């Protein structure tokens, strides 16, 4: 039987969102900004569906970066952001304490900018013995090159590189897990592009919706 110990398990993971703020998103050139927003919202919904602790930290909200982007806050309305002065979550007492209080040793990290607030936090967490997965398509960098170099540095230090769709599918793993099936499927259909379109099509082909005016 294959060893599945290295696969993500909901009970072991915490999601950490770092500086998903418009003032920083303006500077992102490594990925289309709407795609980045779509991916981050999908990741946040994934955290809710699987019951993960979700920690949001922002920086410089009043002087430059602004609040957490509304499209993300709408997904997680009950999560209050912890604002920092330091670029590194690990160097902010309140933000770091929130991560530690979650009591889980695998962090799923996304944020802006990849070259700074994301990588500094990831490198510090790794040094403290945390296992870290960087959700790379929910991170944005100043340029494609600098974003890629930051991802490589984190990977060299021991971080795992992943994507929001892999996180969702890895946590679900079995579509017969009924307690998360509807939520996971909704996320794929809403944010998953062609994959989501295919799921919707398959559902409607298997159980076509009733025609207008026909008895249900």
TrEMBL record:
SUPFAM superfamilies cross-referenced by the UniProt entry: Isochorismatase-like hydrolases
Domain Isochorismatase-like residues, every copy: 15-165
Native source species: Microvirga aerophila
InterPro entries the UniProt entry points to: Hydrolase_YcaC-like (IPR053152), Isochorismatase-like_dom (IPR000868), Isochorismatase-like_sf (IPR036380)
Entry keyword set: Hydrolase
One GO MF term: hydrolase activity
Classification via Pfam families: Isochorismatase
Keyword set includes Transmembrane: no
Name assigned to this protein: Hydrolase
Keyword match Oxidoreductase: no
């Amino acid at each position: 039987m294959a060893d599945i110990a290295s696969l993500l398990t909901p009970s072991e993971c915490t999601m950490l969102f770092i500086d998903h703020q418009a003032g920083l998103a303006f500077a992102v050139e490594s990925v289309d900004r709407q795609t980045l927003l779509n991916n981050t919202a999908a990741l946040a919904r994934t955290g809710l569906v699987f019951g993960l602790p979700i920690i949001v930290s922002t920086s410089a909200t009043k002087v430059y970066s602004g609040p957490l982007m509304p499209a993300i806050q709408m997904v997680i309305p009950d999560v209050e952001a912890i604002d920092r002065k330091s670029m590194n979550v690990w160097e902010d007492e309140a933000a770091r304490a929130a991560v530690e209080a979650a009591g889980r040793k695998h962090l799923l990290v996304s944020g802006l900018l990849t070259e700074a607030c994301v990588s500094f936090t990831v490198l510090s967490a790794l040094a403290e013995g945390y296992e870290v997965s960087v959700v790379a398509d929910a991170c944005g960098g100043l340029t494609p090159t600098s974003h890629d170099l930051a991802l490589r540095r984190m990977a060299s230090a021991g971080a795992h590189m992943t994507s929001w769709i892999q996180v969702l599918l890895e946590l679900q793993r079995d579509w017969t897990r009924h307690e998360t099936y509807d939520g996971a499927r909704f996320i794929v259909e809403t944010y998953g592009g062609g994959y989501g379109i295919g799921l919707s099509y398959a559902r409607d082909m298997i159980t076509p919706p009733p025609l207008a005016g026909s008895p249900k």
